[in-house]
Amino acid sequence: MNITEVIVTPIAIPDVPLANTKGVHPSVFLRAVIEVKTDTGLVGLGEAYGAVRTLSGLQTVAPKLEGLDPYDLRDLRRRIVEALPNSGGVNAPTALADHKVVDVVYSAFEIACLDIRGKEVGRPLYEILGGAARKTIPFGGYLFYKFAKQDLTFGPDIMGEVMTPDALVDQAKLFVGEYGFKSLKLKGGVLEPDLEVETILKLREAFPNHGLRIDPMGAWTVPTAARVVKQLDGVLEYLEDPCRGMDAMAKLSAQIDMPLATNLVVVEFEEIIEAVKKDAVQIILSDHHYWRGATGAIHLGEICRAANLGVSMHSNSHLGISLAAMCHVAAATPNLTYDCDTHYPWSSKEIIKGGRPTFKNGTLQVPEGPGLGVELDHEAVAELHELYNKAMVADRDDTNEMLKYIPDYVRKVPRW
Amino acid sequence: MNITEVIVTPIAIPDVPLANTKGVHPSVFLRAVIEVKTDTGLVGLGEAYGAVRTLSGLQTVAPKLEGLDPYDLRDLRRRIVEALPNSGGVNAPTALADHKVVDVVYSAFEIACLDIRGKEVGRPLYEILGGAARKTIPFGGYLFYKFAKQDLTFGPDIMGEVMTPDALVDQAKLFVGEYGFKSLKLKGGVLEPDLEVETILKLREAFPNHGLRIDPMGAWTVPTAARVVKQLDGVLEYLEDPCRGMDAMAKLSAQIDMPLATNLVVVEFEEIIEAVKKDAVQIILSDHHYWRGATGAIHLGEICRAANLGVSMHSNSHLGISLAAMCHVAAATPNLTYDCDTHYPWSSKEIIKGGRPTFKNGTLQVPEGPGLGVELDHEAVAELHELYNKAMVADRDDTNEMLKYIPDYVRKVPRW
């Protein structure tokens, strides 16, 4: 079985101004839809970041995959490394570190190759990965401070402005009401730490039994983080990336009992070992989009098990192909012991047939169809590709977008 | 696809009195041949240890696998854990630690399940594991001091007594002549350390460009090992398990530059992390027979890559099913950077169709047939099963066997 054609389609999806340490989400988020066709008639799907550096990498690699056997992931990696010397040579400013482009491009195609393998034997992806530790995948509500959307060209706003603890609790109530989430994560690093602490305490009041987390994306100094930890002692299930860099996390970790999680200071397999040696974090966020695909994410789980680290799951803004892949990876990761993050409720579009899956009690059932278990809705893709062309946005730039809302905004990490 | 029947056949293979720290090989070595049949007509093969504790575990688990989907390795594990409370409750004295029985039994059936998966899609096992990093698998010559065999009931001797440095070099010349090995490993801990150093130096003289190793299986104290390291500075590619226990290895490691390898102090995933923290070893020996099968061995490789540890491959006395599995694991482990160990040349029997594969320049080609790429020779199995019944040996006891050659032998680790 050989690959005959690879189609990479950039799409734009209406987004709302969700705030974070870097700034605020632009009016659209970008994804790349991947179709990998084989000479046996099977088509593997994938969904990746759509910003310029990834997209360029995907497009550069796509024609080089002709003739690849989807089973040969080492050949896939070789072809990508060869096609992307200097990580693709894309010079656009972007959050994605140079050396991660290869991993991200590999991850996107790896999922498509595994999808093909699943389809070939008529089995769901989680079985290709060794079997399911669970089939009901729990997700948490991903809460954001947000602005009222100014530019409605590409889509409507949701919820208006959410910039106070009380408004954030209302947001949580909406999400919990609609999706039934049993845990809640607040994207922090946006308001003064005391206000974010107040937000968490009010969430605790409103949801006495929900798991609660906050992720300030490195916005806090070690002393600030230590103070927050004191204020939220016994309230959080974990604290995600409070400080910037491995050493700051290690310094904080040495002072506190609360578990620290990360998707920022540990993004390479080698960094897991460094983190263990420094006892810098206790939980690592998995994500098949950059941990070398689903097989890489499974390896991550095994390494964390060996190192006695917890595993949770990271999310970027995404649609249903990624959601399905996240479910399969979550199903096949025995030691994934926390509800997965997902941005999914923040958009209303879908590119898979059958439309948006329905959450029940905050959970989804892992798809049982062959491979990823999803089929592409080509009309929906075409519509969002048209939006991509209209939007004329090639990269994600939250900081620049923030200037529309706060003209004198200066990005600063740590800020407090 | 479901498993309908599992057949476990103990076999005995004539062996010769190879010496080690525990004593000497008995006149037969024991293996278990595994056939896993499915309702689709596919049969998966496996080869495991045949000593009582493993055999009993395999036999206890076998009927519990009826109805198992060979893709569901988590269900396989669940069934084994359930079937073997207290690790099977086998009380026979054996080298196999209680908690490893589950891993060893799992490993044996995992290989058979992967064999079935490969056969289902008509692909070699290494492709199921993600593709080959190499298809030519390099093995090293495994050299032993040995006695002249006394009891020839079950098979002839090979080479007579080999108890001096010069005789050992002659043994090496025979093996290198017949198999073309490019590296040589000496099973040490048998003679006085100075004699073993002399042996290695004479091997170096005879084979100026061969990789050389010695494995005294924990027979040396830290000072003795440090002295040997000085004497063999620049001569060995690594020193395997010179001292007993993680802390002794760490103490030695801190004093020397020579890389230390192990298949004794790191046999659990958790121990890799402990070894890294203590910098106790620099190379870990992989072995699909106890590292949770082929997928476990691949995880081991990934963890070692993350931890910047080297990977080599361990061997027990074995036949062709194990040899094929070793080749597939070696093919699919990118960072396996040393020639694999194998006891294979020490026996002359085979249980796979086509007979014994031929080494060329110390290498084998990874089998390209579906799954493991080997088929069972049922007549050969029957013959060796008959020998198992005749031999009336249920366990491996090298120390007791040693008393036949050295009546006042007392096992002692460390000895020097």
Structure, explained:
Two copies of one chain form a homodimer. Chain A is an alpha/beta fold and 416 residues long. The first copy, chain A, contains 13 helices and 14 strands. In chain A, the strands form four sheets. In chain A, strands 7-8-9-10-11-12-13 form a seven-stranded parallel beta sheet, with helices on one face. In chain A, strands 1-4-5 form a three-stranded antiparallel beta sheet, with helices on both faces. The longest helix of chain A has 22 residues. The first copy, chain A, is globular. About 2% of the residues of chain A have low confidence. At the A-B interface, α2, α9 and α10 of A face α2, α9 and α10 of B.
How are the secondary structure elements laid out?
2 copies of one chain form a homodimer.
Chain A: E1 3-14, E2 19-20, E3 23-24, E4 28-38, E5 43-49, H1 52-61, H2 73-83, H3 100-121, H4 125-128, E6 136-138, E7 141-144, H5 165-179, E8 183-187, H6 193-206, E9 211-215, H7 222-231, E10 238-240, H8 246-255, E11 260-262, H9 269-278, E12 283-286, H10 293-306, E13 310-313, H11 320-331, E14 363-365, H12 378-391, H13 398-405
Parallel strand pairs in A: 7-8, 8-9, 9-10, 10-11, 11-12, 12-13
Antiparallel strand pairs in A: 1-4, 2-3, 4-5, 6-14
